[in-house]
Amino acid sequence: MDIGFLQALLLGILAFFAGLDLFNGLTHFHRPVVLGPIVGLILGDLHTGILVGGTLELVWMGLAPLAGAQPPNVIIGTIVGATFAISSGVDADVAVGVAVPFAVAVQMGITFLFSAMAPMMSKCDQMADNADTKGIEQVNYFALAVLGTFYFLWAFLPIYFGAEHAKVAVEALPKTLIDGLGVAGGIMPAIGFAVLMKIMMKNAYVPYFILGFVGAAWLELPVLAIAAAAVAMALIDFMRKREPEQAAQPEDVEDGI
Known about the structure:
Number of helices: 12
Distance between the termini: 72 Å
Shape: globular
Helix content: over 70%
Mean pLDDT: 78
Number of strands: 0
Radius of gyration: 23 Å
Order of helices and strands: HHHHHHHHHHHH
């Protein structure tokens, strides 16, 4: 499909506000599971947007910034990946294989941008010494405008000038390469989960992990059924922990005396 100027502009504006949310708003509006469907609505293919957004959410679920180590950029990766899938008609797994390298390149640009803005901190220190609150506000608004514009350009320019050639480029690529991108995209969610489990996995959670694996791999239960069973087990565990606390309370407290 051809992407018009208005659609590319809306996607750029979406990237603008999502970029501000990532570092300032923190409402999780920038997550792929939210951005993917919005991209689908803008481009008229909600189904593909949901698939790509959900798949990329699995990829980025376990990736978190640690000090100077920053994960691939979730916003541009999602917007470009979903747009690529919708405009070229490829599967969501192939879009992931395209989105992740692009997200890595954009994150390098973000790191450079932050490094370039670092000298502004000394200027803000001088303003703070002089109680110049208005100057500090202006610096913050300027930084927000620069960051949002950076995201806007990275989303608008590739989509508007490159989307019309995406389908032609995909058709010209060898089938083995497309299949390889699909395989790589299929592996990425597993890597995301592995990183997440390395951070939060404890011995007490291992039985629940095994039960979930049995339900998904052997019993072939739907994801919602496994999630409902997990909620039930969590409630049972919570109520069992509450019973000793309630038993330890004096009777007069229970009677409201």
